[in-house]
Amino acid sequence: MASNFKTIPIIDISPLLKKSDDPTMSEDKGVLEVCNLLDRACKEAGFFYVKGHGIPDSLINAVKDVTRDFFDLPYDEKNKIKLSAVTGYRGYQRIGENITLGVPDMHEAIDCYREVTPGMYGALGKSLEGSNMWYLFWFRPAALMVAKPRPCWVRTLLIYQKEMYIYLLFHRAMNLYMDKCDNVDFRPSNPSNFKPLMEEYLGLLKDLSRRIMQGISIALSGSPNMFEGERAGDPFWVMRIIGYPALSDSTNAMKLDNDIGCGAHTDYGLLTLVNQDDDITALQVRNRSGEWISAVPIPGTFVCNIGDMLKILSNGLYESTLHRVINSSPKYRVSVAFFLEPNFDAAIEPLECCVQHTGGVAKLGRAVYGEHLVRKVLTNFVM
Ligand SMILES: O=C(O)CCC(=O)C(=O)O
Ligand SMILES: [Fe+2]
C-alpha cells in the first residue's frame, strides 16, 4: 500500500547505468545509493522520475512531435491503421474507444504490442497451435478427471466451462500473434518519419527499462539479473502513443463526454516509462489517503511506475499505484508510454527473497502474465 506521499521522487540513475554490464555492480557504492532510492520510491509511491538515463532530449522531443503530427491528421487517415480484433488489438483507436471501468476514456491512441510467436505460449499455448487444435483441448480425455466426487455430468460441465474460458482467453491471445495479422501494419507510414523514429526509441527504452530493473532487483536483495531468464529474459512489451484533446476541443471526431483522459487504473506489467508533454500537468497518482498527486512534467525525465506483476513478485512490498489522466488545459496533450512486461508465458509469483522480507508468507497469488494481459485488454475494448 502506497504511503501518504505528497511528491514523486526524482532519481538520477546514471551511477546505475554506468555499472550495468559489471558483474560486481551490486557492490558499487554509487549503484547501491541509486538502489536505495529506487527501493524507497517503489515502496512509498510506486512512482518516480528518472534523470541521467542517457536518452537524448532531442529524441524524447522528436517522439512527442511526431505523435502530435500523427494525431493532427484527418480521422480517415488515422483510421487506416485502425485497431481491431484482427490486428490483435494493435493500431489506432479513436476518442472514447478505450474503456476504463466501463467509462470511455477521452483519448485517442496507437497501441503497439510486441509480436507473439508460438514459442511464447508455453505448454498451454502449444496445445492450441495449428488449425483447429482447440477442439482436442476442449474434449481431451483428461478433462474427465477430477478429484472431488460429484455426479459425472456436473464434473464434465464444470471442466467444460473452465476449459472453454481458458480457450477463449488464449484464442484472443492468439489474435495477438502477428502471423494472424501480417497483412495489417499497425504502424503508420504517415508521417514518414514515424516508423524509423519509433523503432529507434523503442530499442533504447527496452534497454533502459531492463537496466532500471537491474537496480530494482538489487533493491529487492536479489542478484542484478533476477528478472532475466524465465521471468523476463524475453520480455513482452507494449507501447501506447496517446493524445488527449483539450477539454474545450469540440472539433474532434467524437464530442468529449467527460473530462477523464484515462480513468484510474494500475499498469499490468513490471515497469512503465512515460514520456509526457513538458508543459501540461495531467497525470495524477493516488496516495494512501486517496488524494490525487500530480506528476508535474519535468523536462528530460521519464515518469516511471510499478506494474501489477512487480507488485506480485515483490509480495506487495512495491505498489502498483492507481493513476489517471485529466487534461484540463486548453492544449492538446501527448504522451508515449512504454511498458516492460514479463515473458508472455511467465508464471509470476512472489519471489522468495521478498517473501522473507514480508513475514515469510506469500500474500499474493500466482498469475500467468499473458492471461493477465489478455483479460485486461479484453475489458478495455467493446468490439
Ligand atoms: O498519459 C500518461 O501520462 C499516462 C498514461 C497511462 O497511465 C497509461 O497509458 O497506462
Ligand atoms: Fe498507466
Write up what this structure looks like:
By secondary structure, the chain is of the alpha+beta class. The protein folds into 2 domains: 307 residues, Jelly Rolls (Sandwich), CATH 2.60.120.330; 51 residues. Helix content is 33%, strand content 17%. The protein contains 11 helices and 16 strands. The chain has an 8-stranded mixed beta sheet. Strands 8-13-10-11 form a 4-stranded antiparallel beta sheet, with no helix packed on it. α2 packs across α8 and α7 packs across α11. The longest helix has 26 residues. The radius of gyration is 22 Å and the shape is globular. Bound molecules: 2-oxoglutaric acid (AKG) and fe (ii) ion. One of its GO terms (molecular function) is dioxygenase activity. Belongs to the iron/ascorbate-dependent oxidoreductase family. Keywords: Dioxygenase, Iron, Metal-binding, Oxidoreductase. This is 2-oxoglutarate/Fe(II)-dependent dioxygenase. It holds the Pfam family 2OG-FeII_Oxy.
